[in-house]
Specification:
Residues 366-431 form the Bul1 C-terminal domain. This protein has 450 residues and is mainly beta. Helices cover 4% and strands 42% of the residues. It has helices spanning 42-49, 434-437, 444-448, and strands at residues 5-7, 35-37, 52-55, 58-62, 74-81, 87-88, 91-105, 112-123, 136-137, 143-150, 190-204, 209-220, 255-262, 268-279, 283-284, 291-301, 312-327, 346-359, 371-372, 377-386, 398-399, 403-416, 422-429, 431-432. The protein is elongated and about 100 Å long.
């Protein structure tokens, strides 16, 4: 039975201003592949199989190609070759490759450093009986070599033995060869690509050297489909301070508080204002649905304070910050926006979009108001819908050795009256595929308990 090999490349530190990360390899996995030669019209065959990327007389065709693939999905198709001349060869090589490429400026020098990590290589071997005998591709004859790949759920431990989440397949990012109409907010310094390649090798002389008379490839999009290690913490676990992961990972804010003072120089304390926020559902990749942002304001005023001192809630605005991390040296920790202060080799590219801008001053029957809970305690609760930015494709959160993608919502509540003009906080946002998001639903009891 033919085998499907999986080679994981373990990146190493570069030591020059422009170099390529190299690695060792290992193999695992199993699949069935068949190949055959045929003399039918290659144009008819291409139209039956779907989109193709060709070079010369050779092309790689994926059958019924989908906009994107995720873990567990299968890809079938064929490498099709119609040589113009009789061509001697040694072997046909077919593989599915995943590659990360980054570049950055060398700290303190200013020269450019490049890195490349081929983290996935699944080969689809051709059986000896399927090759023509002798090993010559005849001019004008069309040869078809079929392939079948199944995207693995995890990479091998040899890909990264330091950070577990690096062994998940990362999402396609910034591939200029994909026919995407939407911007995935990626910089030129970070690229993740997947492609199926076909190469014809021919050994020269004693077989010690090989050259490639024919080669072709076609890109595919892969979207991460695993539950991220960074999840929302239930609001009742929040403390009166900034929350962060124990290993120094992505910072998340769920609660913040301010002391309200009045007077020209603010010497008179009148109470305390607390803001809590939570997004209980993830954004779904390429789904233009809204997710609820739950806001809870609590105001505790001193006994000598006046009821007129309660601040008026004017509006709430939310900005989505998109963070893309990149490095030329494998990351051994979970970065966050402040990591660049201690890691000069880490690059950070960010974009921001306003995803909510809601006014509470319009005279509507559904406008929320302060509710008196006790003599000194008032509460204000509201739900604000968040929508994904238009003309953007937010890929699911992921981390890999060289590249990472995270999202953060910056919530600002505008106030009027006594006390500060605004109160705000930041919370992480998750983006998932619809298959994963369907298993992350939040019960109505949890939403009501906020």
């Amino acid at each position: 039975m033919p085998s499907l090999s999986l080679r994981q490349l373990h990146p190493m530190r570069t030591d020059s201003s422009a170099s390529t990360i190299s690695s060792g390899s290992s193999a695992a996995g199993l699949s069935i592949v068949s190949s055959s030669s045929l003399s039918s019209s290659p144009g008819a065959l291409l139209s039956r199989l779907g989109r193709s990327s060709s070079l010369g007389g050779m092309s790689v065709v994926v059958e019924n190609q989908k906009p994107y693939y995720t873990v567990g999905d299968s890809l079938s198709g064929a490498v099709i070759l119609t040589p113009k001349n009789n061509t001697e060869f040694t072997e046909m090589f077919i593989a599915l490759e995943g590659t990360a490429k980054t570049w950055n400026e060398s700290p303190g020098v200013g020269s450019r450093v490049d890195a490349k990590d081929t983290f996935l290589e699944m080969s689809s071997p051709v059986q000896e009986d399927d090759y023509p005998s002798p090993r010559i591709f005849r001019a004008g004859v069309t040869y078809k070599f079929s392939f079948l790949f199944v995207l693995p759920e995890h990479l091998l431990e040899s890909q990264c033995d330091r950070v577990v989440c690096h062994r998940h397949l990362p999402s396609t990012l910034g591939d200029p060869n994909m026919p995407f109409e939407l911007d995935d907010c990626s910089p030129d310094m970070a690229r993740i690509t997947y492609r199926i390649i076909g190469k014809v090798f021919h050994a020269k002389d004693n077989g010690s050297r090989k050259y490639v008379p024919y080669t072709a490839s076609t890109p595919i999009a892969v979207i991460a489909a695993y539950t991220p290690d960074i999840r929302n913490i239930p609001h009742n676990h929040c403390k009166d301070q900034e929350l962060s992961l124990a290993d120094g990972g992505f910072t998340r804010f769920y609660r913040t508080a301010k002391t309200l003072k009045k007077g020209i120089i603010g010497r008179s304390t009148i109470g305390n204002l607390t803001l809590e926020a939570s997004v209980l559902k993830p954004f779904v990749y390429l789904k233009n649905q809204s997710v609820p942002l739950l806001l809870a304001l609590s105001y505790f005023h001193l006994a000598n304070a006046k009821k007129s001192d309660i601040p008026k809630v004017e509006s709430v605005s939310v900005k989505l910050r998109v963070y893309t991390y990149f490095t030329t040296v494998p990351i051994t920790y979970m970065p966050h926006p402040k990591s660049r202060a201690v890691d000069p080799q880490l690059g950070l590219y960010q974009e921001s979009f306003t995803i909510a801008n809601y006014s509470f001053t319009a005279p509507t029957s559904s406008r929320p108001e302060w509710a008196q809970e006790s003599d000194t305690h008032y509460s204000f609760n509201a739900t604000v819908p968040l929508t994904q930015p238009k003309q953007r494709a937010l890929v699911p959160n992921f981390w890999s050795c060289l590249i990472g993608r995270q999202y953060e919502a910056e919530v600002t509540v505008k106030l009027s009256g006594a006390g500060p003009g605004t109160i705000g906080l930041k919370i992480p946002i998750e983006v998932m595929t619809d298959k994963i998001a369907a298993n992350m639903t939040v019960s109505e009891d949890k939403m009501m308990a906020f």
